[in-house]
């Protein structure tokens, strides 16, 4: 299968502070690829570099065989048309309805007429099981529904690659499972490649095809492969990570 993202010898550093180094991985077209690791290990920072939002790196990031540095110089706007992002703390705009939140990127990037944008927004809402909620405001809906509406906004422009940062954090297990099912369905139905940043192991094991595990003290990838490969790794750092997660979830 073809790689849609390739990362080579990536080092991310803010001033003297090295966040990640020796990062090498590929994301295959059409897969659900998870980035996992403890809090502070650099998951969000890595994601922000993959989409060109931060540029404190050495090494190479290729998106569809194009060097991100060239994309930034030559065609960043058209690149932004091809990706969708739901940020970790990326709230919907509270003064706009759900439909208007989704219409925003449509009208900004595609210059769709308002009527067309409104119809597309309704369709995107139905894709995330929020059919008929077009005129609700974010404050009128539950946390799980907000997460789904953010995903609807992220897929507004039919992205080839969808980046989701902690789409299930703060949700109860049942609602998290619903979001996982939704992500899986979007991946199958739309063929979208999905980069999923999470520390929800349920999500990782039920929906991801492959993953990397970041370690904050080693500042690098300590395991990669299928969820099965990573879980069964004999590496001490990897086992310690799963022990920590188990301790934090078993009450
Ligand atoms: N713009 C920035 N400038 C300097 N340091 C930063 C910047 N953004 C993040 N950092 C640092 O990078 C490190 C990794 O942060 P990051 O937000 O990527 O962690 P994370 O793995 O996403 O954690 P969490 O699971 O809590 O979301 C942290 O030490 C953070 O303080
Ligand atoms: Mg984060």
Characterise the protein shown here.
It is a single chain. The protein has one domain (3-249): 3-Layer(aba) Sandwich (Rossmann fold). 41% of the residues lie in helices and 26% in strands. It is built from ten helices and ten strands. The strands form two sheets. Strands 6-7-8-3-9-10 form a six-stranded mixed sheet, sandwiched between helices. Strands 2-1-4-5 form a four-stranded antiparallel sheet. The protein binds adenosine-5'-triphosphate and magnesium ion. Magnesium ion (MG) binds at residues 43-44, 88, 165. This is ATP-binding cassette domain-containing protein. Residues 5-241 form the ABC transporter domain.
Which stretches of 5+ consecutive residues score pLDDT under 50?
none
Q: Architecture in CATH?
A: 3-Layer(aba) Sandwich
Percent of residues in beta strands?
25-35%
Q: What percent of residues adopt helix (DSSP H or I)? A: 40-55%
Shape: globular
Annotated CATH topology: Rossmann fold
The end-to-end span amounts to 41 Å
Task: Present the secondary structure layout.
Elements: E1 3-14, E2 17-28, E3 32-37, H1 43-50, E4 57-63, E5 66-67, H2 68-74, H3 76-82, E6 83-86, H4 98-109, H5 114-127, H6 143-154, E7 161-165, H7 173-190, E8 193-197, H8 201-207, E9 210-215, E10 220-225, H9 227-231, H10 236-249
Parallel strand pairs: 3-8, 3-9, 6-7, 7-8
Antiparallel strand pairs: 1-2, 1-4, 4-5, 9-10
Helix pairs in contact: 4-5, 4-6, 5-6, 7-8
The structure holds adenosine-5'-triphosphate (ATP) and magnesium ion.
Magnesium ion binds next to helix 1.
């Amino acid at each position: 299968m073809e790689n849609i993202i390739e990362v080579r010898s990536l080092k991310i550093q803010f001033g003297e502070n090295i966040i990640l180094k020796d990062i090498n991985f590929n994301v295959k077209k059409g897969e659900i690829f998870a980035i996992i690791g403890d809090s502070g290990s650099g998951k969000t920072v890595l994601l922000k570099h993959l989409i060109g939002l931060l540029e404190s790196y050495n090494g190479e990031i290729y998106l569809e065989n194009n060097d991100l540095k060239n994309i930034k110089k030559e065609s960043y706007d058209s690149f932004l048309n091809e990706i969708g992002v739901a940020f970790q703390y990326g709230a919907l705009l509270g003064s706009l309805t759900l439909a208007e939140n989704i219409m925003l990127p449509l009208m900004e990037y595609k210059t769709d007429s308002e009527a067309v944008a409104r119809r597309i927004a309704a369709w995107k809402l139905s894709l995330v099981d929020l059919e008929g909620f077009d005129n609700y405001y974010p404050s009128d809906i539950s946390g799980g529904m907000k997460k789904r509406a953010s995903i609807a906004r992220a897929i507004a422009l039919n992205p080839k690659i969808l980046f989701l940062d902690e789409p299930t954090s703060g949700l109860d297990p049942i609602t998290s499972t619903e979001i996982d099912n939704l992500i899986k369905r979007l991946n199958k139905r739309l063929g979208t490649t999905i980069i999923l940043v999470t520390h929800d192991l349920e999500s990782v094991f039920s929906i991801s095809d492959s993953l990397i595990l970041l370690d904050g003290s080693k500042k690098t990838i300590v395991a990669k492969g299928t969820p099965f490969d990573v879980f069964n790794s004999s590496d001490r750092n990897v086992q310690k990570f799963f022990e920590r997660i188990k301790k934090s979830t078993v009450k």
